Amino acid sequence: MSIIQAQHIMLNDPAHVRVAYEPKYSHGSAFINGTYVDLDNAAIPMSDLGFTQADACYDVVSVSKGYFFRLEDHLERFESACTKFQLTNPYTKKQTTEILTNLVKQAGAKEAYVWWAVTRGFMPDGGDRINPNAYENRFYAFVVPYVFISNDEQRARGIDLLVSKQFIRIPPEAVDPTAKNFHWMDLKLSLFEANTANKEWSVLCDASGYLTEAPGSNIFLIKDGVLYTPDSGCLEGITRKTTLELAKEIGMPIHVERVHVEQLLNADEAFLTSTAGGIMPINTVDDTVLGGKAGPGELTTQLHNLYWTKRWDGWLGTAVDYSTPANV
Amino acid sequence: MSIIQAQHIMLNDPAHVRVAYEPKYSHGSAFINGTYVDLDNAAIPMSDLGFTQADACYDVVSVSKGYFFRLEDHLERFESACTKFQLTNPYTKKQTTEILTNLVKQAGAKEAYVWWAVTRGFMPDGGDRINPNAYENRFYAFVVPYVFISNDEQRARGIDLLVSKQFIRIPPEAVDPTAKNFHWMDLKLSLFEANTANKEWSVLCDASGYLTEAPGSNIFLIKDGVLYTPDSGCLEGITRKTTLELAKEIGMPIHVERVHVEQLLNADEAFLTSTAGGIMPINTVDDTVLGGKAGPGELTTQLHNLYWTKRWDGWLGTAVDYSTPANV
């Protein structure tokens, strides 16, 4: 099965059709510190430090064919991020699951992008701003119909990737990338750099030329049948974890270690992974056609299709019951 | 004149009294993408990338005795930050000045903290997210009554500072610190680290142990009558610039260069500078009492008092005309 065939399954299967929802939720649904609203009316206080100081952590889980994928893994990673940033989720994992499920139902989305965050909240009065316990942390969430960060056409032919020359990724010694966070300026500007260079996406290295991550995604390369991905300087992506499991399943040797950018330029195949895009094949890096042949590599295609086939079989899925209304 | 005397001038002078304002602006006033509101009702859309991806730049100017200080310098720095981050302020410098002035009048604040930002705005539809021109950038601002980040008592006795052991500052190769931005997690967590160590504020080094900046402030040290401050890895603070000018005025030799943390530990005096705090003397660094004597150093005190004396004489000030209503 080629990637294009996999796309056809995705586009035509009635299991993906959006279920009933009120028109006001057409753009999505949101939850703001205790209240459910439609996304168009979702706002956060201007003086929330999650805004003015990116003082927050967040996570994103996807829903496909009405199933959350690895929800428990995302919830655990989120709690871990809260701990790393000395934030406290005001809701338990069970309550968080209820909120996210309600939002998916409100949006009527069987294919959904589900985002939630805990922010530091407002600056406490007086000098207590250096005490994390003086803050009342706040919870926000939204759900929008799923849009691939790499669209069908791009995934079918492979992404043209730029290694950023202008930016390195924020190092773990400054901000821990394993705690998913709002610190995106290096990533964003590297995307604009890619655009200027007529590329479609970017990847960032650390100060020593070792690969870290791409905007919103992890990077993998394949050389002589062996799968490589960086062990540090990046988010511990859930799709990354899934990919490593799938590679094991099909018998690929795996190296999770420091990976130099030169290895990427000499790779046979490469791809990005992301909750917002699944497995996204890379066609070229800078001006190098990987493996000397345009299009997604063979092993990449195999992993891509296995990922979606297993997901659509309900693997590690949590069903959303759309037949009952959201409990809001 | 000691720092305590300077504080008494500040606290008792009727020139600092808040002028008439509607009670709804008691917490401050705000401007959201074209609309004036009170701060309690000021909110930004949840899906503005300024929130979810810290994709924004900002600036802060202070008002004292009804005068903006170096407003033109702040406006210029802000425009420069927009350029560095490929953001476009939808308002000219003249329009920005009008908005900020209206907010100060609405808040009735003769001592004010004036904040404004331009965010990336919403994610554009389709794949155009890598093109900065596809975004409609948004302008937000707020004004609150001025609160010193270092209060009178702290400034009179000097701050107990911690050199962060757990975090380095985000390096310029990742996010340019001369473009004032929302990337604060390293700074915030270093403050919590300081709190745990029973200190009051923190300062961060780069990966090689050279001083960068403190949360929201620049760092200076004095050794044998010579003034030192880092030349890179930090915001080019307006109070920093002012301090360098004042030091020149009183004949102090100035070294703007790489400054190692060891130099701070061996300094005779040190202080922080910030729009939100002016010149803030340091008492101890880690457990070292600077100059072997508790309290603000002599030259630091001289600079502190000169700073406020000149400001209150209207130096580089732009008067706010509170006798006419805000044009909103």
UniProtKB/TrEMBL annotation, chains A, B:
Its cofactor is pyridoxal 5'-phosphate. Pathway: Amino-acid biosynthesis; L-valine biosynthesis; L-valine from pyruvate: step 4/4; Cofactor biosynthesis; tetrahydrofolate biosynthesis; 4-aminobenzoate from chorismate: step 2/2; Amino-acid biosynthesis; L-isoleucine biosynthesis; L-isoleucine from 2-oxobutanoate: step 4/4; Amino-acid biosynthesis; L-leucine biosynthesis; L-leucine from 3-methyl-2-oxobutanoate: step 4/4. It comes from the Bacteria. Gene3D superfamilies: 3.30.470.10, D-amino Acid Aminotransferase, subunit A, domain 2 (3.20.10.10). One of its GO terms (biological process) is amino acid biosynthetic process. InterPro entries: Aminotrans_IV (IPR001544), Aminotransferase-like (IPR036038), BCAT-like_C (IPR043132), BCAT-like_N (IPR043131), Class-IV_PLP-Dep_Aminotrnsfr (IPR050571). Keywords: Aminotransferase, Folate biosynthesis, Pyridoxal phosphate, Transferase. GO terms for molecular function: 4-amino-4-deoxychorismate lyase activity; branched-chain-amino-acid transaminase activity. Its EC number is 2.6.1.42, 4.1.3.38. It catalyses: L-leucine + 2-oxoglutarate = 4-methyl-2-oxopentanoate + L-glutamate; L-valine + 2-oxoglutarate = 3-methyl-2-oxobutanoate + L-glutamate; 4-amino-4-deoxychorismate = 4-aminobenzoate + pyruvate + H(+); L-isoleucine + 2-oxoglutarate = (S)-3-methyl-2-oxopentanoate + L-glutamate. Belongs to the class-IV pyridoxal-phosphate-dependent aminotransferase family. Involved in the biosynthesis of p-aminobenzoate (PABA), a precursor of tetrahydrofolate. Converts 4-amino-4-deoxychorismate into 4-aminobenzoate (PABA) and pyruvate. This is Aminodeoxychorismate lyase.
